[in-house]
């Protein structure tokens, strides 16, 4: 992966920034702490993998903004790709993936790329990882040496270091495979146990079955007899049922006849009531028919009033139409008058506004002389400012060159001062170390004593462990014995359960038992049961005591183990103290060299100041600047003078505008005054000579000619309402004249119907007497039918019981054959499960920590060691050498009785790192910060190359984030030289530092500065 261009928008501390990596093979990203150097690399990782140090992606968005975007163009195996990742606050993340169409296309031209974006974010991310052959974890552990992570591998304990290497090589999936194999092995082991139980049960069932043929023949004979009995009972039941059905039919007919008799009686009552009602209605109509003449006279007068009302209603319709027209015309006349008044008011308002504008324009024109003088002053100030701008353009390159000389002098001075500060700091440290030599000797004695005590505690810890294992084995034996006794107890309880069955046989010999032998067998079984319970109780007591002993041993083991956890740190402390004590012998010579170098640097500082004051180039620049006589204050005053008179330009524009507006107003005023006079004339003629006034007079004349009186019409309508009841009486009279003949006919018909119903009642009474006589002479059968049903139910129950027993016997015979078949299948399954259990146990061991992962680490460590020593030789001038040790001799003891016996040393797995220099092999902790960093850097870079090769990708990009602060001048020079030497191996190397003395060592620098507008990038070559 080779970066080509990175564009940031609102990402972390950057608002708008772009960086072109073209031609950058070895560059330094420099700037103060917190300026945003590491954010550039975070942007690359976030664009490609969507990963960053931020927990929430919204934290990546620049403060106060709503969207962050990173546009990253990179090259992979000769193909150019473009990745654009965008994040909106509180919304989803958008990802675009593009590939360059032609190799010659410009990377800044979006049309030169074709889209490879998938339908979802997950699919697009998968396509990116497929193209670059590198995931995020491999990137940060190979190409990206992150801040504060360079020494992580070295500071781990040997066991942790080996685990870290396995994690970096992604060998954890072997542990997943091992766990899956162990799970499968446990499943097959449990399956074997279950199969064993099933086999035992089937074998027990097969031995308990006997021959069932005789019992089956006896049951079949009983079933035939019961079926014959059921047929006889069913025949008798059928005869009695037919007789019972005849009685039920007679009973139903009698019930129907009684219901018919009741219905006829009710119908007779209803018809009689209807006849009485009709006679009453006819009697009620007779008074109305007697007043026929009076009702007819009132009805005739009501019709006369109705005719007069219709005539007046027609006039009323015409009257309302004319009145409505008159009101509409009056409203129109009033509205026209109101409109003319409003137009007149508007015209007067416009006339007043134009007169005010005319006065304002005359006021502005009166200031014409003052504005002309101000314009003259403005032109003079602008001419002076233009001359000073030309003078500034001549002086600016000279001032810039002078500032550059001052910056170079300051950089050289800063390097010398920084070196002097470092030497003085080292001198103080050496003096403190020289003063602390007695304390170091005393500390070495104390640490040695503590190590001796901890080694004794380690022997005692092994003794505790052996004793705990012995107690655990003893408890496992007790638990096995307890399970055996509980199994025996369960079997004994089953045998005792068999003795409770009447006429039970002996559970041992299967012979019949008399009362004496039955009691003897029961007594022996109860005694055996009690013995087993006593043994189980004793075992439980022993288990409780052993558990308490194990708890005490565990507590003591944890205390001793906690104390022993300090042994490694104490050993490291002794190594550091011994190394410090050995270094104190050369402190005097080192102090002498440091003081000499400080004096030399002070002399260089004095000489540097003198050389600067006497430099010809500096003198020439000063002479040229004096001859130009350029003063920034004079330039600023000239700018202020221009700004002071700049208002005259605006006032001149206002003056011209006032002249134009005054001319326009003089044209508008005469027309507006004429319009006002015209509106006043129209308002006077509207109420007298207008069309609306004349039409209103015509309507009023038509109303007078109509001769309609609304009051007289209302009185006629009141008299019509008084005669309205005669209309209702006339309608009732007409209905009565039509209804009276119908009522007389209805009364005759009802009398005929009543006579017919009386005849039907007499016939139904005779039928009821006949049915009662038939029911009295027939026999009642329900009691015998109930008895037959009980006998049939009992016979059916016995038949079903025998059939069920016969089915169980047949089922038992079939089950015997099925159990034989199932026994063979279970035996085959048991053999298969045993084979699978052995296979998965072997796989779990192969995928375990000491299997394939350990073998891979053993094969890769020589490559890592060779690569690290190659790089370390470049960094240290072949002064340091590392060696990886994967096994070492262990010490242990084995208990025999109460004594301990020494065993031969065994090899144990580890991952120690031995570092050798010209003085021999020493622990890592005894090396200085600069030396330790060079070792860390070499191993870390070697590990990066190894990880890249493992992932199938070529490591073309290397990013080093900080780590130079521990280096002295020589170490830094060696580190820069090493970077230059390995530069041909990489397409791009980026080093991040905030130290000014290191920035000058790089020919190409990317300066990062933080401003109020966000972090800014500057490329310095």
What descriptive keywords fit this protein?
1021 residues; alpha+beta; Rossmann fold; six-stranded mixed sheet
List the helices and strands and how they pair.
Layout: E1 2-11, E2 14-20, E3 26-30, H1 37-49, E4 67-76, E5 79-88, E6 93-100, E7 113-115, H2 121-132, H3 136-141, E8 144-145, H4 152-155, H5 158-168, H6 172-207, H7 213-290, H8 292-365, H9 368-435, H10 437-499, H11 515-564, H12 567-583, H13 587-613, H14 616-628, H15 632-645, H16 647-689, H17 691-706, H18 710-722, H19 724-777, H20 782-847, H21 852-876, E9 881-890, E10 893-896, E11 899-902, E12 906-917, E13 920-922, H22 929-950, E14 957-961, H23 969-982, E15 988-993, H24 996-999, E16 1005-1011, E17 1014-1020
Parallel strand pairs: 3-15, 3-16, 8-14, 14-15
Antiparallel strand pairs: 1-2, 1-4, 4-5, 5-6, 6-7, 9-12, 10-11, 12-13, 16-17
Keywords: ATP-binding, Coiled coil, Metal-binding, Nucleotide-binding, Zinc
Binding site for Zn(2+): 506, 509
Protein name: Nuclease SbcCD subunit C
Structure description:
With 1021 residues, the chain is α+β, with helices and mostly antiparallel strands. Among the domains are: 1-134 and 958-1021, P-loop containing nucleotide triphosphate hydrolases (Rossmann fold, 3-Layer(aba) Sandwich), CATH 3.40.50.300; 155-170 and 852-952, 3-Layer(aba) Sandwich (Rossmann fold); 295-366 and 661-722; 370-435 and 590-645; 437-565, Helix Hairpins (Orthogonal Bundle). 73% of the residues lie in helices and 11% in strands. The protein is built from 24 helices and 17 strands. The strands form four sheets. The chain has a six-stranded antiparallel sheet with strand order 2-1-4-5-6-7, with helices on one face. A six-stranded mixed sheet has the order 8-14-15-3-16-17, sandwiched between helices. Helix 8 (292-365) runs antiparallel to helix 16. The longest helix has 78 residues, at 213-290. The relative contact order is 0.14. Mean pLDDT is 79; it is low at 892-904.
């Amino acid at each position: 992966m080779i970066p080509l261009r990175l564009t940031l928008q609102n990402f972390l501390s950057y608002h708008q920034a772009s960086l072109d990596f073209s031609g950058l093979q070895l560059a330094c990203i420099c700037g103060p702490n917190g300026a945003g150097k590491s954010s550039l690399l975070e942007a690359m990782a976030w664009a490609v993998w969507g990963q960053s140090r931020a927990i929430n992606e919204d934290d990546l968005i620049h403060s106060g903004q709503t969207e962050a975007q990173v546009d990253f163009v990179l090259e992979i195996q000769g193909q150019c790709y473009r990745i654009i990742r965008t994040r909106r606050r509180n919304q989803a993340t958008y990802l675009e993936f593009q590939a360059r169409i032609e190799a010659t296309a410009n990377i800044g031209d979006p049309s030169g790329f074709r889209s490879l974006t998938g339908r979802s974010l997950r699919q697009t991310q998968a396509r990116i990882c497929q193209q670059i052959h590198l995931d995020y974890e491999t990137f940060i552990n190979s190409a990206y040496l992150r801040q504060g992570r360079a020494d992580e591998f070295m500071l781990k304990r040997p066991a942790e270091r080996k685990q870290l290497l396995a994690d970096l090589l992604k060998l954890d999936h072997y542990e997943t495979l091992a766990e899956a194999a162990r799970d499968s092995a446990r499943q097959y082991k449990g399956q074997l146990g279950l199969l064993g139980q099933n086999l035992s049960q089937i074998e027990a069932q097969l031995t308990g079955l006997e021959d069932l043929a005789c019992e089956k023949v006896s049951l079949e004979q009983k079933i035939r007899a019961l079926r014959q009995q059921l047929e006889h009972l069913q025949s008798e039941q059928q005869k009695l049922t037919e007789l019972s059905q005849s009685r039920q039919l007679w009973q139903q007919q009698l019930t129907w006849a009684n219901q018919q008799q009741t219905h006829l009686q009710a119908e007779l009552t209803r018809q009689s009531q209807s006849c009485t009602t009709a006679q009453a209605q006819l009697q009620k109509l007779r008074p109305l028919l007697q007043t026929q003449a009076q009702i007819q006279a009132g009805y005739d007068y009501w019709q006369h009033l109705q005719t007069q009302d219709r005539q007046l209603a027609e006039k009323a319709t015409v009257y309302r139409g004319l009145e409505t027209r008159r009101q509409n015309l009056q409203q129109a006349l009033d509205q026209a008058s109101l409109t003319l008044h409003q137009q007149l008011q508007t015209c007067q308002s416009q006339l007043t506004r134009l007169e005010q504008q005319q006065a304002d324009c005359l006021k502005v024109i009166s200031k014409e002389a003052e504005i002309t003088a101000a314009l003259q002053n403005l032109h003079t100030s602008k001419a002076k400012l233009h001359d000073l701008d030309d003078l500034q353009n001549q002086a600016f390159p000279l001032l810039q060159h002078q500032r550059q000389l001052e910056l170079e002098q300051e950089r050289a001075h800063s390097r010398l001062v920084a070196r002097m500060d470092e030497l003085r700091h080292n001198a103080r440290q050496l003096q403190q170390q020289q003063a602390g030599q007695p304390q170091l000797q005393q500390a070495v004695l104390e640490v040695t004593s503590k190590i001796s005590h901890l080694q004794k505690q380690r022997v005692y810890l092994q003794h505790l462990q052996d004793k705990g294992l012995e107690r655990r084995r003893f408890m496992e034996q007790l638990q096995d014995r307890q399970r055996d006794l509980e199994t025996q107890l369960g079997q004994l309880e089953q045998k005792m359960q068999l003795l409770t069955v009447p006429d039970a046989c002996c559970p041992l010999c299967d012979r019949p038992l008399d009362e004496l032998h039955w009691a003897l067998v029961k007594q022996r079984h109860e005694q055996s049961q009690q013995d087993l319970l006593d043994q189980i109780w004793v075992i439980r007591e022993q288990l409780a005591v052993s558990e308490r002993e194990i708890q005490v041993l565990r507590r003591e083991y944890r205390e001793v183990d906690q104390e022993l956890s300090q042994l490694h740190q104490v050993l490291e402390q002794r190594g550091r103290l011994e190394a410090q004590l050995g270094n104190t012998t050369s402190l005097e010579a080192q102090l002498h060299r440091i003081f000499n170098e400080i004096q030399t640097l002070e002399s260089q500082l004095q000489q540097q100041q003198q050389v600067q004051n006497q430099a010809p180039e500096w003198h020439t620049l000063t002479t040229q600047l004096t001859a130009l006589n350029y003063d920034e204050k004079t330039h600023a005053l000239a700018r202020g003078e221009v700004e002071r008179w700049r208002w005259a330009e605006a006032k001149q524009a206002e003056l011209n505008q006032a002249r134009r507006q005054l001319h326009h107003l003089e044209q508008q005023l005469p027309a507006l005054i004429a319009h006002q006079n015209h509106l006043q004339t129209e308002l006077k003629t509207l109420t007298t000579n207008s069309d609306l006034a004349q039409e209103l007079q015509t309507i009023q004349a038509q109303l007078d000619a109509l001769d309609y009186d609304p009051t007289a019409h209302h009185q006629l309508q009141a008299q019509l309402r008084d005669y309205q009841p005669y209309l209702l009486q006339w309608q009732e009279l007409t209905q009565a004249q039509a209804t009276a003949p119908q009522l007389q006919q209805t009364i005759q018909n009802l009398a005929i119907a009543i006579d017919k119903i009386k005849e039907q009642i007499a016939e139904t009474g005779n039928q009821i007497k006949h049915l009662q006589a038939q029911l009295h002479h027939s026999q009642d059968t329900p009691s015998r039918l109930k008895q037959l049903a009980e006998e049939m139910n009992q016979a059916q129950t016995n038949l079903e019981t025998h059939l069920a027993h016969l089915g169980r016997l047949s089922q038992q015979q079939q089950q015997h054959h099925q159990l034989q078949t199932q026994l063979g299948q279970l035996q085959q399954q048991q053999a298969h499960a045993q084979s699978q259990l052995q296979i998965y146990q072997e796989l779990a061991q192969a995928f375990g920590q000491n299997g394939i992962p350990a073998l891979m680490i053993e094969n890769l460590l020589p490559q890592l060691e060779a690569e690290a020593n190659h790089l370390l030789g470049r960094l240290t001038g072949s002064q340091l050498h590392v060696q990886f040790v994967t096994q070492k001799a262990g010490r242990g003891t084995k208990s025999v009785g109460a004594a301990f016996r020494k065993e031969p040393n065994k090899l144990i797995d580890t991952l120690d790192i031995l570092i050798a220099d010209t003085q021999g092999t020493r622990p890592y902790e005894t090396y200085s910060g600069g030396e330790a960093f060079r070792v860390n850097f070499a191993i870390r870079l070697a590990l990066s190359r190894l990880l890249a090769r493992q992932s199938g990708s070529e490591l073309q990009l290397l990013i080093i984030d900080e780590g130079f602060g521990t280096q002295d001048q020589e170490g830094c020079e060696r580190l820069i030289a090493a970077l230059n030497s390995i530069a041909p191996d990489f397409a791009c190397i980026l080093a991040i530092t905030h130290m000014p003395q290191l920035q000058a060592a790089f020919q190409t620098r990317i300066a990062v500065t933080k401003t109020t507008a966000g972090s800014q990038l500057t490329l310095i070559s």
